[in-house]
Amino acid sequence: MDVYLPIANLSVNGLWIVLLGGVTGILSGLFGVGGGFLTTPLLIFYGVPPTVAAASASTQVTGASVSGVLAHSKRNGVDYRMGAVMVAGGAIGAGIGSLLFRFLRSIGQIDVVINALYVVLLGSIGTLMAREAWQAIRGDPGAAAPRRRRHHPLIASLPGRWRFYRSGLYISPLAPLLLGVIVGILTMLMGVGGGFILVPAMLYILGMSANVVVGTSLYNILFVTVVTTMMHSLTTRAVDIVLVGLLLIGSVTGAQMGTQVAARFAPEKLRIVLAAIVLIIALRMFFGLFVRPDEIYTVNML
Q1: What number of helices (H) and strands (E) belong to the chain?
Q2: Is 270 in contact with 258 (CB distance < 8 Å)?
Q3: Which long-range contacts (CB under 8 A, 24 or more apart) does 110-114 make?
Q4: Which residue of 167, 180, 223, 287 has the smallest Cβ count within 10 Å?
Q5: Domain-by-domain residue ranges, the chain?
């Protein structure tokens, strides 16, 4: 079944897009990531322009996050106070990201920047994830031993402290606020939910309790992607509603499946599979930076 994407000016197989949305939803429920870090590059590989892929992926991540938040909320796995502070930072970051997006687009470098950012981030995250998962599978005593949950020393030096009861923390709200700003910028530029950065940052920098990390990450992703969707619609006008609709059909169902699968499989095995996928995509995008595209011109929508 072929469908036409008006903004992308492209005919695609609708079933393939729905399946891609399903994979995104499963990843959302499994790891607390929005899945946009895979959706955007896969859409680019399929021929969707990077600007449209990034803007539309951030919209689709919202649907997957709603489903995931509801599932984790039933298990008391969401720190709403921590999430609200991150959302405030994400809104600020989305505004900054919007300005960067428009500037890079005006000078004709947005496609290159999006691809380069994905190569750096996916390569770094995939390598770290694979190393940690492999150590756990091999039975490395250092990897198997539970890490003491403690926030980074820099966090302790920040002024003013709030109690985040569900996370078990007494820290400055500036830390999650700044983390939210970073995620907001990345969401606007790359169409990612930011969970692949949020989850490890909340665990190893903020020192949050592991049982609320995934749910709180999805809560933040939900609201930040809503803000970025509105900004893309009003400023860049790169959101393809047909593409978003197809992705949403699969992602909402996939998120529920992901939360069920997460409880049945060893997390280190799931992580190493995800790391392998991430690294393959990073290598493919790195290769794409040095290959002349089929279309050497792009349409700049004012």
Answers
A1: 12, 4
A2: no
A3: 110/50, 110/51, 111/49, 111/50, 111/51, 111/298, 112/289, 113/189, 114/40, 114/50, 114/51, 114/54, 114/189, 114/190
A4: 287
A5: 2-288
Nearest Cα to Cα of residue 37 among 245, 215, 217, 227: 217
The pair of structure tokens assigned to 147 is 């890490």
Report the amino acid identity of residue 30. L
- Quote the pLDDT of residue 302: 45
4 by DSSP, 3-state: which? strand
The model's pLDDT over 89-110, given as tens digits with 9 standing for 90+, comes to 988 998 898 888 888 888 887 7
Six-digit token pair at 59?
């919209």
Contact 167, 208 (CB under 8 A): yes
User: Which range has the top average pLDDT, 21-35, 211-225, 257-271?
Assistant: 211-225
Contact by Cβ (8 Å): 281, 42 = yes
46 close to 53: Cβ distance less than 8 angstroms:
no
pLDDT of residue 215: 84
The pTM (predicted TM-score) of the whole model is 0.66
